[in-house]
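Bumping with the actual sequence this time:
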Amino acid sequence: MTTPISNRYEFVLLYDVENGNPNGDPDAGNMPRIDPETGYGIVTDVCLKRKVRNFVEMMQGDAAGYRIYIKEGIPLNANHKEAYIAVGLEPGKKASVEGVAKAREWMCKNFFDIRTFGAVLMVGDNCGQVRGPIQINFSRSIDPIVQQEVTITRLTVTREEEAEKERTMGRKHIIPYGLYRAEGYISAKLANDPTKGTGFSEEDLKLVWDALVNMFEHDHSAARGKMAARKLFIFKHDSDLGNAPSHKLFELVDVKKNEGAVAPRKFGDYTVKAPKPGKLEGFDGVELIEKL
């Protein structure tokens, strides 16, 4: 962690899934999430943030400044208590405004995902509230998806009293193919503001780009099938407040199904159109960077 970022960014991530479930819906029997009105597939922001957290934890472990706040098996309030002790506050007692600010600063400094995505730290020992500089929209598939339920056979049983059955049946929920688009925002002001900033740095930003490109490579499972990041377009502004509306920049990246590809089954069934990398014509102070 060094100097906080001083440029605003937006990004467009294209990724696909083949014969897998990118994000199951627990309210629908873990079927792939779908917009019931249009049939388009949906992947939540929480799902992608989890993959970023997992990648960072895999790369950094528990290195100073790169711990993960939201992780399995660790009560969140235990981290709050640690922060209070570290800054000289007494756990279990109400802290002053200045004390809460010190605890918040300690949490941002030590936990990568708080510094990046923000968090509400007011339960238990109050460490304040953090607005993270990076926010990601729900992903949506380029075309409507087809949810499939595949029956599978397991040549064993779970309980001893079922031994005579010899085998059990199960189900997997997949989509044959789907190309998804996620859009995200990175606010320099929420990183470098003297009082509200998280300290999110250029080194942190590089790690986020690496995570978006590589997170699926370290998240393979039978349930998720074949998932891969296909394109990452980054819009870099030459100021912290930005030089163009984000929606206008997002519109520059156009993804269309190829003529004749009635039921797409691969990334090559689509055409992706975007300006050439470099300074954008008509958008002074904005540069396009293509990572994939």
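The tokens above came from a reply further down the thread. Residues 9-290 form one domain.
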